[in-house]
Amino acid sequence: MNRAIELARLGMGNVAPNPMVGCVIVHDGLIIGEGYHREYGKPHAEVNAINNVINKALLKESTLYVTLEPCAHFGKTPPCADLIVKWGIPDVVVGIVDPFAGVSGKGIEKLRKNGCNVTEGVLEDRCRELNRRFFTYHKKRRPYIILKWAQTADGFIDIDRSQENYGQPTWITNDLSKIAVHKMRSDEAAILVGTNTAQKDNPSLNVREWHGKSPLRIVIDKDLRLSNDLSLFDQRIPTIVYTSVEVQGKTNLEFRQVAFDQNLLNSILKDMHENGIQSLIVEGGQLLLNSFIEQGLWDEARVFVGQKSFYKGIRAPKFDALKIKSEELDDSDLFVYYNNAI
Description:
Elements: H1 2-9, E1 22-27, E2 30-36, H2 45-51, E3 63-68, H3 80-86, E4 91-96, H4 106-113, E5 117-119, H5 124-130, H6 132-139, E6 144-151, E7 156-158, H7 175-187, E8 190-193, H8 195-201, E9 216-220, E10 239-243, E11 253-257, H9 264-274, E12 279-282, H10 286-294, E13 300-305, E14 314-315, E15 322-329, E16 332-338
Parallel strand pairs: 3-4, 4-5, 6-12, 6-13, 8-9, 8-12, 9-10, 10-11
Antiparallel strand pairs: 1-2, 1-3, 7-14, 13-16, 15-16
Helix pairs in contact: 3-4
């Protein structure tokens, strides 16, 4: 199962909104086949692992390990449970049950009804962690939310900028941190900023320092006061603007009208869920970040800390969270936190 988890991670950034899944087939203590879900809409991990077995006759005497319950429904590919039954694999070890209503227990049930000996819950916590985006999306009916910001050694995320200083972000960390940020963007489905950040920093919110797909860009602009000349509106990457105004969209630029009330964030997250957006980076300023924190609408925070000091300016958000890891990035640091209130 450890090996299956390693394989599953190779699908990061390529399989969403499907989960990352790895599969290993063992005969007489030796791995004879392995595979993972490589790309959305393409064969699942179990299919790739079975195809990787040279001598298919051994399958009738083998054990199949898979990080997530085999599917039992017809989607973009046939049910994996049917394939396992077809090849007569007698023993199946499952990391965790699929939370998706179309599967949830049905794959395991089908295997057992057809004579398979199924063991559940092996390295379950690690398998859940692997697909925390997928589980959050299906259980909480919203995207998995990652808050991200950079702060100085003395706890500021920006200086107090006048309008003549708009257009470029205030640089706090280093080039290695920038690469880490762009890798993070390539792993997630969407990225969100508020009106002030869009106006002050003019961010592109794309992937430039890493190989991968740029996330869907999302900006909140209640009264459409942002300039059409901003990089966010260059129409090169699909972009959504949440606004109170009804307006016609353009190619790669969509305007969605929402009520700007106390339920604004929940309304936006509900719309994202309905449109299959499984994960979201919130890369806004103090106001937007604090709104997510105050409403408990976050799962993970990634905080980059540089060596600079501003002494005054805009304070970094404060929150109660469990630090799960830290990483040195030359003269900067990355701290990762989980929301311990959920």
